[in-house]
């Protein structure tokens, strides 16, 4: 029976690496997969999922208006899919998370979504919010703070490494703009408490 999985973490926990490894496992067994990534995240090139350790694979781009269910249904009719993978799943809309549920329930295809749990203000993204509420299985991928404790927050930083507390929820970047921290160090840098 297919299920919706949400693998979440702070930045630099290996979400994309895990996604690419899982997709490879399906393909190695002769099963077709569908990979999606957010259209506006082009840090590694358009239509590409890439990990910091050098793995990459082509992916279909999704925007807020993309119907993941219909796209997947058409692909599945052409060649049966063994699994659907979604990178940067925090950027999904509420409607798109429901589309993922329909992929699971109507097409009987597992969906593995990978994304951040919270933004730089400690608030959930829309996609993460509904994935945390509706996914069949939740798995936290862990990364560490500079102190060695589990990092479960992401701070946005300026060019000097100082935490920024204001701005749009989405500002695409990597280690140049964000740092993963434990709650204690996040609170110290952002005045969270």
From TrEMBL:
Protein source organism: Agaribacter marinus
Quaternary organization: Homotetramer.
Subcellular location(s) of the protein: Cytoplasm
Binding residues for ATP: 9-16, 87-90
Keyword set, alphabetical order: ATP-binding, Cytoplasm, DNA synthesis, Kinase, Metal-binding, Nucleotide-binding, Transferase, Zinc
Lineage, broadest ranks: Bacteria, Pseudomonadati, Pseudomonadota, Gammaproteobacteria, Alteromonadales
Protein name as it appears in the record: Thymidine kinase
Gene from which this protein is expressed: tdk
Entry's family note: Belongs to the thymidine kinase family.
Binding-site list for Zn(2+): 145, 147, 182, 185
Catalytic function, reaction form: thymidine + ATP = dTMP + ADP + H(+)
PROSITE patterns: TK_CELLULAR_TYPE
